[in-house]
Amino acid sequence: xxxYSAVMPEFERYNAGVLGISVDGVWSHKAFAxxxxxxxxxxxxxxxxxxxxxxxxxxDESTGMCERALFVLDADGVVVWSHVSPPGTNPGADxxxxxxxxxxxxxxxxx
Length: 111
Hints:
Layout: H1 2-6, H2 8-13, E1 20-22, H3 26-36, E2 42-44, H4 51-55, E3 59-60, E4 65-66, E5 69-73, E6 79-84, H5 94-102
Parallel strand pairs: 1-2
Antiparallel strand pairs: 3-4, 5-6
């Protein structure tokens, strides 16, 4: 996730913001962000646990965790690109940037 803070100027070129969401609680997110130098919001999908992850189809009932997934939403909130990474794999930012580049200016996210 530190990578996304580092490439934030690239996201901003497309008027895109970054949010991190996990089933961890607020205090865990605070410690994680401070430790990793993350400067974008981390949201807690804590209660009811995994509700957002379930809506996006990336909640694993057997482990109680969500998969490492990336989504790009357009200005209307429509998912225009997604990627689920295998456990332990850093998905990088190239796919996100390519998806943002592919959106025309009317569909680009609005901060």
